[in-house]
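Inputs:
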Amino acid sequence: MIAPTQSQQRPGAGQLFSAIPGAGILLILMLALFTIANPRFVSQTNLVNVGLQASLLLMIALPMTLIILTEGLDLSAGALLGLSGVIVAEALLAGWSVFAACAMAFAISTAFGALNGVLIAYLTLPAFVVTLGTMGLMQGIALVMTNGDPVGGFTPAIETFYRSQLWIFPMPIVVAVALYAALWLLLYRTRLGNYVIAIGGNKDALRLAGIRANLVHLAVYVLGSAIVGLSAVLLIGRTNSAHPTVGIGMEFEAIAAVVLGGTSFEKGQGWLFGAVLGALAITVLRNGLNILSVDSSLQVVCIGILLILALLIDRARKHYSRQAA
Amino acid sequence: MRTTRPRRCVLAAIICSTLSSPAAWADGEVIAAFTKNQVDPHFEGVRAGVAQMAQRMNATVKNYTPTKPNNITEGMSQLEDVGVTKPNLMLFMPIDAKAQLPTIKRLIDSGLPIINYNDRGGDAPFLSFIGQDDYKLGYDIAKTLFDHLGGKGNVVILEGVKGSTTGDERKRGFDAAAKDYPNIKILASQPTNFQRLLGMQTMENLIQQFSTIDGVIAAADASALGAIEALNAAGRKNVAVVSINGVPEAVEAVKAGSLLAIAEFDGFKIGCVATAVGLNAIRGQSAPKQVTIPGAIITKANYAPWLIPYKDRTCPTPDAYIAK
Amino acid sequence: MTIPATLDTRSPSLSPDAVALLGRLILIVLIAGALTAVDPGFASVSNLLNMLRQASLLFLVASGLTLVIIGGGLDLSVGSNLTLSACLAAAAIKTTGNPWYGVAVAVTSGTLIGFTNGLMINRLRLPPFLATFGMLWVAQGAAYWFMAGQTIYGMPMSFRYFGTGFFLGVPLPIWITLVVCVVCSIILHRTTFGREAYFMGANQTAALLSGIAVERRRLLLYVLSGLTAGIAALVYLARLNAAEPGIGEPLLLPAIAAVLVGGTSLFGGSGNIVGTVLGAILLTIIVNGLNLLNVAATWHPFVNGAVVLIAILADFIVSRRRSESG
């Protein structure tokens, strides 16, 4: 499993190539198999679809990577997606401008992120439990606000934005790429990023070095929730309506994507690009199985097997490289 | 175990997809059939009807069902993905009509013929709509219950999925009937997502809240069956329960007397007719704007036809329902 | 293998845990009292038994999970384990007409799934979260495939007794809960295995170094978790009188919540099974209360989330105060 060392050098290109994680290998395999099975798999329409679907997953998986790097977890991301979308939709329906509605969603997302962060970073409560609790809170608020119904009928500008393109690239893909670039810079090119990675390895050491470790730790959750909250705007563009329960379960898929890509729960080992590989692997699998119209019950089994296979490959490679060393 | 589909899925799917060719208008068309979940037996009826009619008319079917029941994200992804496979015909029921309408419109614009069945999909140029009048189903079954109660009593409603056309329309029917019976008191109306466990738990909670419940209206059989379990467990006797659907298990309950009556919402018939209308349309015949299958009220007096398992039933043809 | 005397192997049934349990018990009694004041019907025997039966169903799913978490692991597959086991058991009962085949199938299926989890974590060294998460998908998919979109219904009366029957006036699920609770308690506090489980959860490295066969203990923990999921599957099947591929999915998070609200720490090494019983009762009684007060069902997730947060905050404050007072 490729992982930046604790001294946090950016992985060199050679190092990357020679150590493609299990998800990458499986991704290439699946691409090949699906294309052979049905050449329409690599048609432009389908590749765009895969890109769009993976982008949405990435917008949760990328901030989740940062959180997992700090040995944490955010189970509330899916619920926040739903809540944030509902807030934007209701605000728009109440006559607010798009900017104001998004700002409101941003504010509420940040507030919940801060709640998570304070409980996890300062009170050192386990992330699983805290975010399980806040997930219930957020889901509850979304349900009560909407009485369980989807909210639609707001300005079509959001959907237009979702369907718009920058040159030939659909907007969600552009946003996902931009998000990746921004987080990559943050993580690997700033001191803050170094601190984030260090928290996962040894938070006490960071604190002893004089850094406000708790604040950095809090910031990770705030940042994560802010990103998820803003992603909800794109998501409601896809269906032109806000569903309070749209995100339920997506946090687990995002966690699966992050881990598939090689980020480990312990000791803050991992890399950002792994989340991209993982998200693509999951999306390609689902898309490919849809194209082959494989029975959906078997789709579910395949996702589980994919996960286990990828992890096995990583184990094997680690074992092998340790032997070779 | 009993199964209606081949199990060597991946291999079969690969073979199927390589055999299907896009422009075969005569026979051997590929139908993409969408259903909402794999847990409600109603949709198994739909799939059984589609399969039987397709086989009779020499076409093949590929089923698209979300892995998480009624999951809109998966539903959207499957909708986006199906366009790539270029089926000859699509049978579509929305999980959320408003959300999926733009994508459906795009698919129709790209040349894919789409039949809307089961739930109304909204204002798009579908070839036809095959379904039933959910409002009437709701109204009729509620009326049956209220009449049975002699026009007065305490009643609770177990709704379907909020935001689904079927659920909302049936609720409208329930409410309209309640207005016509001033001495019927609706104590509560809660969503149970057409599901059994939720129906049972909601009923348990309602039993706790209200000491006298005379009747229960459920938007689907599964919820009603769960509610009956709850009523039995709490020792509440003489509560009349009605529901909508007509799946075999519920019909057996009618036979046994634990379910008063069911308004027939027959997935099998809907699947058959939708497939027939769709295939006829792409083979050159004209398609009626809609085919509304009337729903009978299944009671202890007439339940027999609905106990026949799907594989032994015969598909009705659209002619039975289209007024000439 | 002797455990060095210098390492702490106290079976943690001493004051701190007893206080936590007592606190929860008092809270439950208080809430019950308040609800009775609002509606005297709440305190009727039939209603209390009904509520305890609901809590029992929740507890049974969470029971084995508690053991795994105490041992430092996590089992996300309990929900889909229950689903698959229930579906297989229902099929066995329907085809053979004999409920005991169903029991055997459910127990075997549950145990096998737990065994596979343990195997993946031990031999393949997969992190518990991921191994059991992968198993969640595989078991759920297997259930969907096996059921082929249908439900299996109409269990024989003799079997339904486990879910709907009464013994000495008390519903069967409550008796089953008592039995499971007692057995798990004995395992945790009266066997070496239990002590080692606590040790493993508290500090896996130290446990390894002190000679505990961590891998074998871990395997047994996951087997137990799977086994209790199988038992829970039988009770659910008996209660619902039908098996559907969707029953287990919504059970996972409430089960985890029951364990956590009961005071067991996710880090491992502390907590006990009685806590999970109380946690299940607490969550159930609160939802019951909401219904009684005519609060819309849409509020339930919010309240459940709040309960989880309040529970861990309360434990945190109490433990802080205790460590400050020395």
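Residues 48-247 of chain A form one domain. Flag for discussion at group meeting.
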